[in-house]
Amino acid sequence: MLHSLRVITLAWLGLAALVLAAPAIAQPALDPTEQRLAEVHGVVVPRPADRETREQLGFPPPREAREILAEIDAMSAEMRTISARDEVWKQRFREFRAMQRRRISLVSELEESGYEGARLTELLETKLEDIGQIYRSRGWPWASFGAARADMARRYDGTSIGARARAFDMLDRIHGLKHAGLRVHPDDYEKIGDIELQWKEDPDAGLLLLEALHGSDDVPLQRQWHNWILENLPPQTRGYRTVMRRRMFGEPIQLTGDALRGGTIDTADWRGEVILVDFWGMWCAPCIAAMPHLKEMEEKYADRGLRIVGVFVDHEFDRAREFVASRAYDWPQIIWEKSTPENYLEHPIAHKYAVGGFPTLWLIDRDGVLVEQVDRERLEETIVKYLDRE
After folding, report:
1. Is the domain covering 256-387 a CATH 3.40.30.10 domain?
2. Burial class (CB in 10 A: 0-12, 13-18, 19+), 248
3. Per-domain boundaries in the chain
């Protein structure tokens, strides 16, 4: 028993003998037990969610769930005010990270209190996200937070929370290999695939295999596991969409949809012309800033066969109509009429082809083949290259 407690303690102290102490900074959100452990061991230790480890580390018994939830809500509200403003975020970054560490401990305390209310899943997801951000932050002791996530994988085995915890634990292991200049052994991809299947309904499914394959020059291995992703993961997952997006370049493509000004749009009608596709939204300042250059390109090269079409990833149709009319941005815009303030990033075209950054510019050649995602700094050069290919 003493031996097992010693092992548990070492895990929750994050192998303190191997971890350097954090820089001396204000830690406004650490409770007295966390602060004492940080001073003694040089590592911040989150509150564990099981009684035996909690008692071994000296944390007090959990409070009532109502009191814990109130503190979580108050802290989360303050964190939103910090992260919502860039200048405040820069000033209070370290304090924000300390609040995340405190919130991890609060959710663990809530678990230990026996709370099984409707908010538990939401708060466990928040705990995983907080652990992930701390784990990836430079300068913070992180090993004990890895132990906390591994504990979640065990505690919630067979649930979506457990599967997500296990997947992100594996992701960090893969990143560790890559940072050390090593590669995942081909025999281990089966194990990674098994973990992918456990969280296949999660939006991030496929990320493990993509990260494991990143940088590999083994073309047959990449093809094998890209095919596996397409055969085993749902189309809405990150892995499926990324593989599809990589494969679509060099292939014919046809974009269709309702037009902002009425009617429909079908890029097949423009076969024989070079088509520049602009994914944008009114909410996207860089998109708005880039549009005068698009107009310049249209005016300069329309006679040589350049067409521009926008894919409007937004829900503010009236505002967009007024905007493009006032600036004479006359190229057609494909909209999704079901777009709302809640789902506007799910435009079917952007969703199908995994467009996640805005603005994104594509180029379709005269044969209707999607040939490039265009670097805005090389926009004119790239347009001319394909216009010259008669």
Report:
1. yes
2. middle
3. 2-155, 176-248, 256-387
